[in-house]
Amino acid sequence: VITSDTEVKNIKMSLYKSAQFSINLNQKTWHIISAYSTAVTKKAQAQAQRNVTDVGKSLACKGFLRSHKPYHPPQNVPDKVRSICNNLKISFASDYKLENLEEKFKFLSACFQDFQHSVPNSQVHELQSIGDVVKFYETSVNTTVPYDALKNAKLPENLHIQHDYVRFNPDTDSKFNGQTAFPKSSTLVTGLKYRGKYEGYNAKRSWP
């Protein structure tokens, strides 16, 4: 309730034009009917919603270079899961819910020891029943990057992909007898991933 004309003017400046009021001129009392929101609040909500959407898309796009080990499921996955359930005295019914967190932790830990394949943190909430766990361990995991998969692909005759880098090293070069077009340029391998795979070369430079 607002009883001052000065306060009314200040409030009117901070509200949207769409806000509705009921006025009692005798008592000089104004009642705000509709809720209002400032531009800052709406902007913050839109920004937060956009950030969540962008983060979700970013996580969905990450897949090829994430640190996952390849996994090839055995043929007797249901039998192994049944054996684990018997050891832990858990029902093997496909629709049995893993609602007890302690029970679920022990069960997934036993599955990891048996299959040597752990459940990623992002997928733990998806395994809600025994059937979900069996389906998870029946799914293979292929960590081959699509570019590397082209090595085993049958390509057209007019297409050739050079998989290994050609790095010039005058000490081991046999094609040009160690003669380089850039005598003072070194071949540096800066990436930690490829330092052990490719050998660099430090050229001898005269002073200055």
TrEMBL record:
<keyword id="KW-0687">Ribonucleoprotein</keyword>
<comment type="similarity">
    <text>Belongs to the mitochondrion-specific ribosomal protein mL50 family.</text>
</comment>
<keyword id="KW-0496">Mitochondrion</keyword>
<dbReference type="GO" id="GO:0005762">
    <property type="term" value="C:mitochondrial large ribosomal subunit"/>
</dbReference>
<dbReference type="InterPro" id="IPR018305">
    <property type="entry name" value="Ribosomal_m50"/>
</dbReference>
<dbReference type="Pfam" id="PF10501">
    <property type="entry name" value="Ribosomal_L50"/>
</dbReference>
<protein>
    <recommendedName>
        <fullName>Large ribosomal subunit protein mL50</fullName>
    </recommendedName>
</protein>
<keyword id="KW-0689">Ribosomal protein</keyword>
